[in-house]
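Regression report. Comparing outputs from two consecutive submissions.

Submission 1:
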Amino acid sequence: MADVCSSCKNQVTNMKGMVRFSCPGCGKVEFVRCQRCRANAVQYKCQECGFSGPN
């Protein structure tokens, strides 16, 4: 299955600088972020608990 950025929805499988992490608020949802969205601090939001980042 291809990884998709949680913010921009672009495919990021094997992309340099991408990260994968659990929601800091609830730990139930996994986020995938591309290097561009990380560098530009593009927001993401957890559908489970409402946590949004980056803070």
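Submission 2:
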Amino acid sequence: MSRTARALRRAASDVQARLAGYYQLEPGVPVADYVLPTAPGSRETLLVRQVGDHLELRLLLPKDVSLGPELHRAQPTDGFLQLVEGVSHFMLVVERARRGLPTTQLELELQAEVDKFALLGGELPPHAGRHIHQRLYEQVSFLHHAGSEQGARYRLANGLAARFVHRLIGRRPALKRRALQRFHGAGQAEKLWLVARGT
């Protein structure tokens, strides 16, 4: 195994441990066993194939994703956010499969957008939380055209996450965490209800 592959697997494991710790999840399937490096400049991709009653998974991560101490930076890099997104997708698919529940591409994208805030801003005071909110949901660009299916889905997920997270910024960390934990455990219909309700 190359040094790059080992570094990517360590970074993915670290993100998985931090998300699992924040949400107080039981130890799950180790994401590191499913990480494969891809060409620099590519985008993170979770490949999912159902074979009988089993899922085959591969998390493709670009070799040039940022592996630095991003959790302490006010401006996380696109590479680090890709890493969080890929691990988030992996964790949600595995959890839903374990519980025999469905998921959708919209839910995967929405949860990943919220997971980024949980990881980077969940414990921050309001002024710093607002800065992270701005970075994650306002200072963004999209690769897919707004009129495309993917472009519409990414924009919808970003907008829904922005609405949900914005209402949490001023809360005490324990209350914020409780709301984010509930959101994580919810299915898509309940997630959308939580966004609309503002809880």
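Expected: both submissions complete independently.
Actual: both completed, but the second showed a warning that disappeared on reload.
Relevant detail on submission 2: The CA atoms of residues 29 and 94 lie 7 Å apart.
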